Amino acid sequence: MHRLLPEPPADGIDPYDAYADAPGMRLGMVMSVDGSVTDAEGWTDKLGGDADFRVFRTLRALSDAILVGARTVRTGRLGPARLRADLRARRGGPPAPIVVVSRSLDLDWTLPLFTEAETPTIVVTSRNARNEVPGHVQAIGAGRDDVDLPAAIRTLREDLGHERLLCEGGPALATALIRASLVDELCLSIAPALLGGARHTRLLDGLDAEVPLDPAALYLDEGVLFIRYRLRV
Ligand SMILES: NC(=O)c1ccc[n+]([C@@H]2O[C@H](COP(=O)([O-])OP(=O)(O)OC[C@H]3O[C@@H](n4cnc5c(N)ncnc54)[C@H](OP(=O)(O)O)[C@@H]3O)[C@@H](O)[C@H]2O)c1
User: Fold this and answer.
1) How far apart are the CA of 180 and the centre of ligand 1, in A?
2) What is the tens place of the pLDDT at every residue in 48-77?
């Protein structure tokens, strides 16, 4: 990985060092140059290749909990978090739990994500819906009828001790977190491709406010640009 910013440019950068100073809430996503966050199969695997996968794994290893929206889980492609031995050694422990955010709880509870995770998956929903979560899954109820995201984040931090949070998307959850001013940093990977096509999902879903960004770091690896933006909120 090459560092382009901050100066001076440098080569041989280890992603773990590049992203080590994790703030309270990171949003880590990959998109094509024209803003698509899904490949032709509606998933992300073919977007950023190995270079992006290295950063993806690193961001996970540097977080205490990994938030994902329920529609991403409903693709059926998201497995339980695992950690490669080298990252586990540097992290000094098991993987962070995945935290699924859902109002509807329209989730397949038999997925390995809910039955086989080394660190058990957590579901965030409203207090009214919480009782519908099966007993084998840990649930957080935040907000009475609708999910109160700031309250959910407080619970993750204050009750469960998960300080460094990573949201992996998708666009709907990412937008909700940005709207609620809960995101400190956007870790964006830009894959060298134009995907076009109306069926592709864009990075954010219905953001209705301008959010200025400060580029804090810029890396290049195998043609993929990795930018760390601080959000000015
Ligand atoms: N390129 C990338 O980095 C990346 C990353 C992740 C996902 N993706 C792709 O993105 C697509 C899915 O994204 P998406 O935007 O459609 O969905 P999403 O953000 O993954 O999930 C949306 C769902 O999350 C829950 N949710 C979101 N905001 C909420 C809030 N404020 N309160 C309570 N619940 C909330 C709701 O669940 P319920 O419907 O259950 O109520 C909502 O329907 C997939 O195709 C996936 O492959 C790409």
Assistant:
1) 16
2) 899 999 999 999 999 999 999 999 999 999
Residue 50 CB: number of other CB atoms within 10 A? 9
Q: Are 229 and 214 in contact (CB under 8 A)?
A: yes
Q: Using only the alpha carbons of the chain, give its radius of gyration.
A: 17
pTM above 0.85, yes or no: yes
- pLDDT grade for 205, boundaries at 50, 70 and 90: confident
The C-alpha atoms of residue 29 and residue 130 are separated, in whole angstroms, by: 28
d(CA 180, CA 192): 31
Q: Which of 71, 102, 153, 204 to mutate to test the pocket of ligand 1 (most atoms within 8 A of CB)?
A: 71
| Cα 122 to Cα 56, 79, 213, distances in angstroms | 20, 13, 31
Structural domains present in the chain: 1-62+181-233 (3.40.430.10), 64-163 (3.40.430.10)
Tokens standing for 8? 């001076």
Pocket test for ligand 1, best of 32, 68, 173 (most atoms within 8 A of CB): 173
